[in-house]
Structures are given as structure tokens and as C-alpha cells.
Amino acid sequence: MIKGKFIDNLPKVYGIYTGGFLVFIILMAIAEQAGMSAKLIGIFFVAFTVLIYALIGWLSRTLQVDAYYVAGRQVPTVFNGMATAADWMSGASFVAMAGGIYFKGYGYMALLVGWTGGYVLVASLLAPYLRKFGCYTVPDFIGTRYGGNLARFSAVIVLTVASFTYVTAQINATGTIASVALDIPFGIAVYVGLASILMCSMLGGMRAVTWTQVAQYIVLIIAYLLPVFWISSKLGAGFFPHFMLADEVARIAELEGQFGFVKNSAADLATVPKGLAGITKAHSSVNATPWAFISLAVCMMAGTASLPHVMMRYFTTPSVRTARRSVGWSLFFIFLLYSSAPMLATLSKLSLIDPTLPTGIIGKTISEVQAIDWYQNWNQANLMFISDFNGNGTLELNEFFMGGKAVVLATPEIAGLPYVISGLVAAGGMAAAMSTADGLVLAISNALSHDIYYKIINPKAETAKRLIVARVLLVLIGFAGATIAALEIQGILGSVIWAFDFAMSGLFFPLVLGVWWKRANAPGAVAGMLLGLISGTAYLIWVRSGGSGFLGITQLTFGIVGAAVSLVSMVVVSLITAAPDAATQKMVDDVRIPSGKTVLAQK
Amino acid sequence: MSKQEQHWEKTRNLLFITLAIWFVFSIGIFLFGAEMQESSIRPFGYPLTYWFTCQGSLAIFVILIFWFAGRQEKIDDEFGFTEREGDQ
Predict the structure, then answer these.
(1) What count of CB pairs under 8 Å joins A to B?
(2) Model ipTM?
């Protein structure tokens, strides 16, 4: 595969790939008609796509440092946008987001606003400047801008805490999907997921991850949009759901008013399997205070701008200009999925609760619902549960419980779509979780191999040795993540949100002020990173262990405490210690103009 | 004022405008979520606040970033700071 040629041919290569994938879906649909079992279809979908990613990973193998760390800095704008979107949209976005909207309504939508609004900060405050800097990793920027191993080391600590929290959740998600689709125990499936993740990243580093992430984006966006459009047409809600579901949203509000939200007793709720929830919040009305909404959105936005696995994707573009535009494309590709999640939640909820629809189950008798095929399947998978609390023999709104994942995983089946769609959705979820896990594992292992091993421990290491160390670390971190994921200690979504708060606590202000405030110096940055991370973590532990918290800051928004401490300590310590030397000030000046060589190349 | 200082001042002003628009659609309007929901303005028939959380704010962010990138490129051009082939 000739490099220059491959880059020029990208639209063609991925065009053929997309066409091939669509043909594969059609073949599977034909096979289903011919009597292929649902289980076999699921296996084919997941195995086929994972094998393709592994093939891309193998074809992108490299022995060059530049290719391994930043994909040779030649990823075109739009393709980097797709890769970032896949990097960004995790298993949680794919599988759990629509469920979150379904159950929590407005209060949860703060995550949508936050996870998109953060990209405005990325584009305007950071990405172009870090690209101009020419670093390999985020700690590389911190270490060079502020100078000194302590600053570099502190940045690696924050990065590792945030990314590791995040990656266990992703490996957990790959394990969940692999175990369902391939029908193997979760403990083994986690390692199958890990092996797939490592195949994509180990040989080619960032270069391999880039080209697999583009492939994964294509799979995941088809897998998300196709069912949404199909279900919407099938329910007669309109062929373009995004613009046509107003009546459905109004109908849900009407039904909610009719049924009312009956509160279940604690004794009744104790009989509901763990992890399942009922509909207790209004679908479209404003059900959270402004502060609850805004504080969560702010945390997700600042966290977005501080998470290293996203930032490092913009190190791979050919120029500062393309880095900036690439952020816009990233958000556009993310928008395609995020704007569809509320539509899926609406369609899913209406088809279940509207008694006038053939799929509606509220108002039917308990025994009738228990006889439905899909109810039995998802009940067995521990994602659906009904119980006749009031003993009237009829299913009420408050007697129906579902797992968050079921909105994405089960709605196609409930709406009566062929099983091939469920197989497609499993492949999409796998792609989403794998692409994010790859980005995160690479971010951690690159920081350890480049910033700790090469920059601090052994600056004289040769290229071959550096790349071996990078790969060994990659495998070790993958295994550590999988081992913790196999223990299943936290839910997927909770730990994702924590990762944003950790990143925001320690990295947001040291990164932003590194570009926008010349007076910021090394002692200030170290204080900002460490005190921010420590105070945020302390607050989290305090609230988790029963502390009352203050200002309405919860365990999901502890980043506000961390970032505030980080800002104050960074400014105060910077001002009471000596200003950065002239060379550092010159470096900041150079970062601020796009033209000329990268700052690191000048040194 | 040197060329570079002027360039930075313009860049900073653009940042402030961008962040002001960002602030309005990510934070500002949600201070009035309950009031806006009752508004008679209903894009595509959806309640206003609900629409902003599903589509409105998200789409505005996408447009805002492209607009910002275009403006920044103009500023860079004006001062001759645009990258040339082989710069990197």
C-alpha cells in the first residue's frame, strides 16, 4: 500500500468499503429470509466487521515514530472528522444515550448539549494551537510549554486517571456486546473484545487507529440511522423523523397526563431486577432546575476540551487550518447521531405506551404481555420486566420496567423490523465501543511511552526501542482495563461522566491558559493540575460516602469544584512565582500564529 | 503595535464573539428553560426548549465552528500568517 496514493484515494477506498458493507447487509437479509438463524446472523455481523478492522490495522502497520504517534500528520479534514466522531462516540453514546433520554428526559439532555458544545471550546481555544505546537501527546504540550519533568509528569497522571476511568467502561461495553452477539460468557467476551481492540492499534498506532476509526464510524452511523428512519416510517410517524415527530411528542405528553406518574412503594420496587427502570419523568417538559441542567452541561463541555484522546486526533491533520475545520466536521458527524437519539427515544416510548398502536403494551392484560415473543426474549436478557403491583390484571405505566440499553437494542424488534437490523445494531455498538477504547488505550500508552519513557527516563532511546516500549505498554494497559472491566464494578454511563469531570478538574485550565495566558508558569500549572485533580477527587469521595455536597454540585458534576480550585491555584501560584523566561514567551507567540514551522520543530 | 500583536488582538476579539454565541446557546437559554417551553414559537411543531436540546443548540454549534474557522482564516490571510506548502 503506497502511502501518498492511499491518501489520494481515500474517498474511493471508503466508498467501496461502504458499498461492500451495504451489500453485506442485503446478503444477510436474504440469508434471513432463507432461514438463517438469528444467532448466526449476529455472529456474522460482529465477526465480519471486527475482521475488517483487524485487516485495516494490519495493513496500517508502521515502524516510523511519526506514523505511530500522529498518523504521519496527513489525515485529511473530513476523514479526521469521521475518525474523531468514532473516537468520541463511545459504546455509551451508542447504546445508552437514547435510553437515558427515554427515562430522564430534559435533565439528561444536558449531556447532548454539553457533549456537542464542548467542540466550540476545542475549536476556538485549543485544537489549532496545539496542532501548531507540533506535539505527539497532550502531556508533551504541557511539558514543553511549561518546562520541567514535574509538569509533564502531573499531566500524565491526570490523563491516566481520566482516560483509564473511561476505558474500563468501553472494554466493558465491547464485552457486553460480544457476549450477547457471539453467545459467550461475559468474562471471556471481555478478552475477545480486548483482542479486537489491540489488533486495531498495536501494529500501526495512531495511523492504524485512524483508518479503523473511519471504517467504524461508517458502520456505526449506518447502524444507528437506518433503524431510526425505518421505525419512523413503519409507525407512520414520517419518513424524516427529525422534522416530523412533533405530533408524537405531543401524544406522549397527552398519554403521560392520562396515565399519571404513579409512585411505586419501596417494597414493590425491591422486586424489580437491578438496573431496570420505569418511566417516571415527563418526556419533553422541563423537569430539571436551570442550575442542574447548566452545571452538567458545563462539566461535559469543559471535559470535552480536556480529554486527551479527542485532542490528539487534531495532531494528525496536515495543518493548523485543517485542524480547525476538522473540528467542525467532527461535530457534524457527531450531530448526525446525537440528533437522532431523542427521535429514537420518542419512537420507542410511543410504540410501547400508546394503547392504540399494535405494539403498545400499556393497558393490555399482564398475561397478554407475558405471551409476546419479544417480551419473553428481553425479559430473559434481563432488560425488561413487568409486574402487577396493584393486582388489577392490567399493565399500568408504573408497572413496566426496562433497561437503558433496551431502547437501542430492542426497539427494532418491538417495531417488527427483521432480525438483520438487530445484528446491524450489535455491529454498530461494537464499532462505537471499540473505536473509543482504541483511542483511549492509545492515549494512555502514548503518554507513558513518549512522555515518561522517552522524555523522562531514557531520552537517548532509539526509534525501534521506543516503538517496542509503546506497544508493550499498549498491551499491558489493555489487559489492566479488561481485568477491571471483568469485575463489573461500575455502570457504563456513570464512569464515562466521571472521566469528563476528572479531565476537567486537572487539565482544562492548564491547557487553555498555556495558550491564552503568557504569564502562566510551571509551578502554577503543576499546582493547577494536582490541586484540581485532588480536590475534585476528594469532593467525589465525600459525596459518594454520604456527604451533603454544596451548591447543588453532585457526584456527576464534581469537575466544577476541581476546575475552580485548579483555576485559582494556577493563577495565584503563577503570580507569586517568577514569570516564564523569554524563550517560553517566544514559544507562546509562535503558537499563536498559524504560519511557520511547528514550535517543536524549531527547537 | 506590531503586526503580530494586531493579529492576536483580532484573534482574541473573534474568540470573544464566538464564546458569547456559544454561551447563549449552551448556557444562557437554559436559564429560561421553563419559560421558553411555553413559548408559541415551535420549530417543526416541537416545544421550544425541547427542540433546542434535541437539535437547535447542536446545529448552531456545528455552524458556529465553521463560521469561526472561516473568520479566523480571513484574519490569518490579512496578516500574511496563512500556512504555505511545506511549512510543517
Answers:
(1) 155
(2) 0.94
